[in-house]
Amino acid sequence: MTGASDSEFVFRGYRLDGRQRRLWGPDGEPVPLRPKEFDALLALVRLAGSPVSKDELMSLVWPDTVVEENNLNQVVSRLRQILGDDRNDPVFIATITGRGYQFVATVETPDVADRGDEKPADETAGSKGWRWAAAVVVLVTGAVLGVVLLQGGDAPTPQAPASLRDAMLVTTSPSSNSMPTLSPDGTMMAFISDRSGTDQVWVKGIPDGRATQLTDGSLPADSPSWSPVSNTILFQRPASDGTPSAWLVDALGSRPPRLVVRDAVDPRFSPDGQAFVFRRGLKDIYIAYLDGGETRKLEGVPDTPGFADTMPTMNAKGDIAFVLADEGPSGNLWLYEAATAEFRQLTRSDSGFAGVWARDPAWLPDNQTVIYAASPDEPANSHLWRVDTRSGESMRLSTGVGGYAEPAVSADGEKLAYVYAQPLWRLVRSDPRTGEHRSIHETRKGVALPAVSGDGHSIVFFGEKVFTLPVDGGPPQQVTFGPPGQATLPAWSRSDNTIYYHRDRTLQRLDPVTGMDEPVLEDFHWSEKNWLAAHGNRLAYRIKSRWPGRARSVIHDLDSSEILKLDDDILPTDWSRDGKTLLGRRLGDYGLLTCDTESLACKPILDGDAEIGGAVPRWSHDETRVFFRRALQDKPGYAEIWVVARDGGEPERLFELGPYQPRNFFFAVAHDDTVIWPEYDNHGNPEIWMTRDLGAGSEERGQ
User: What span, in angstroms and rounded, lies between the C-alpha atoms of 460 and 470?
Assistant: First the structure.
């Protein structure tokens, strides 16, 4: 758009400046926009209150270029993400069916003279004695990778957190970028990118050096860590047998990667570059030595039933910061103090979640301060925090809508690399007959475990609350209330209109029509009794046990309180409507079974040793067939949906779905045998930004 207006516009706390071509958020922070995004927003704001046709808007945004309508749709979708808008309940940009778009927020034009002697941000920044920093930002629908300067030095206790603002764009790339790590002098950066088709390690000079690929092949690389004392990069990649392992590669690419430790996940260098810390399994923490010393296990890590990745990192004193979850995936930050051999919890949740969703701890060179990502209120609202490990006080570094992750600190403690992500979750309805995939709901607050009602016309899912939604789409209806994360794992009864869900350690039964919500079982926590399937007052679930062979799958009659054990240990997923048959997956392999609810005997539909294994089996609407999922091992985050006759036979592949979160690929089957599943959109064009000023930052404290 040429000839941008010099006018300024204010709407719902945002300030849009047509002369400077900048947008400031309600918190006073600049909001990064691409040129076409700014042009589209300015056009809509100038015409606020009036519908703008798509043709008119395209002519304003691309005056000298012929583009397809999809380009405009993508720009508008991005603007909604940036503004936190919901297309189903818009407060900024509404879709006018058959016409185009309309800016619906109230817009005011402030008197410039009322701003006194305020100067543009880039005029005042130079007088503050700013320090240079570089940043990489990924914005379209996904991650943003950035490098900024910390308030560095050896100050033992941070006074105020830095804000991540005034970043300027330094490079772009049509791919996803994540997991940054910095060279000892902070002039180079290694990171993971899929620009070659597979996640691999790349390096580039900061801020505007050319990116060079260090690793290649069909096996994806992960978790790079630059040695603090040399041009050597540690990273994770599967060995030839598929075991995740630690590898070393020269940052100059002069030698091919070499395997150093098998069965090693999330390897990170120690500050002296002579050792590295990593995990095995989900929680076990190990230290390996590059001089050939014996790898040793960190003993005494608290044994908790949660399953958050530990992500250990070590400082120069041998202290290890790591993540541990009391239950589920929402972990807290913990500290192992080498001098005392004691473990100490650093963060605690004030919400309904068991933890603050802590991730990616990184030490500052003062050996006392840890930078980490956390989401105290909701998983999608991740910010960067810094914690003083002596006092346990945390302060937030980042501001705005959230979506920050994967911090990495340079060896001198002056630069911080981070990933900024504003993921988008969608509920998608896929038709196996036509191959059509249609989004029926999208949100930034998370979508997990969709289930369809017995009649096949309604969906229940949860994010920070439990919601219902028609399978044809429409506004979601919130059906639970209370702190975020308190209500989880809803399951719709196959025989009626009731929903069972977990509230803390109680199983609740909810009628979404009347709103009646009542407890039915106390001391019923999903970490111990899970894979719930319901048929009226009868529940099927699996009771876990820490003792081998003690776990069991049962049918629990709420009327009689009778609990009957099934012959097979299965993960129950679906009842038949008549209540006579239970569908599930056998534990230990991917065999699919049906179980007679009277005799409690189970028989296979699909052998787990077959070439096509199955997971999450679901009935077709007429219950003559079984849909199931098959994960694609060579394509993480994607799966295929297959179908097989109820009595067995040759399975048929229907279509591929993705991307999705690996722990969140549950699907449901609607009344017309369309498949409802949660899409996780966290990829986009990477953009590198550079910041000069960290500012005063947020005053938020806690955790």
Answer: 9
The values of phi and psi at residue 82, to 5°, are -65, -40
Q: Are the beta carbons of 349 and 331 closer than 8 angstroms?
A: no
Cα 432 to Cα 429, 469, 642, distances in angstroms: 10, 21, 10
Q: How crowded is residue 629: how many other Cβ atoms within 10 Å of its Cβ? A: 23
- Distance, CA of 52 to CA of 103 (rounded, Å): 9
- How confident is residue 160, by pLDDT bands cut at 50, 70 and 90? very low
Query: Is the predicted pLDDT of residue 634 greater than 80, yes or no?
Result: no
- Angle, to 10 degrees, between the axis of helix 35-46 and the axis of helix 69-83? 80
By CB atoms closer than 10 A (0-12, 13-18, 19+), residue 367 is middle
In contact, 51 and 423? CB cutoff 8 Å: no
**What b-and-e string marks burial along 229-267, b requiring 16 or more CB atoms within 10 Å of the CB?**
eeebbbbbbebeeeebbbbbbebeeeeebeeebebbbbb
Alpha carbon distance 120, 382 (integer Å): 29
* CA–CA separation, 425 and 380 (whole Å): 10
Residue 80: both structure tokens together: 């909604």
Q: Which domains does the chain have, with CATH numbers?
A: 8-114 (1.10.10.10), 119-423+684-696 (2.120.10.30), 432-673 (2.120.10.30)
What secondary structure, in 3-state letters, does 323-381 show? EECCCCCCCEEEEEECCCCEEEECCCCCCCCCCCCCEEEEECCCCCEEEEEECCCCCCC
Beta carbons of 428 and 439 less than 8 angstroms apart: yes
Place of tokens 């007429």: 622
Candidates 202, 195, 191, 190; CA nearest to 176 is 195
Question: Which element (helix H / strand E) includes 103?
Answer: strand 100-103
- Residues 569-588 have pLDDT tens digits of 899 999 999 999 999 998 76
Q: What pTM was computed for the model?
A: 0.56
- State whether residue 45 is helix, strand or coil: helix
Q: What is the largest CA-CA distance in the chain?
A: 83
Centre a 10 Å sphere on the Cβ of residue 612 and count the other Cβ atoms it contains: 16
Instruction: Give Cα separations from 536 to 493, 523, 540 (angstroms).
Output: 6, 20, 11
CA atoms within 13 A on the CB side of 40: 26
Residues 6+ apart with CB under 8 A from 561: none
* 677 vs 439: CA distance, rounded Å: 10
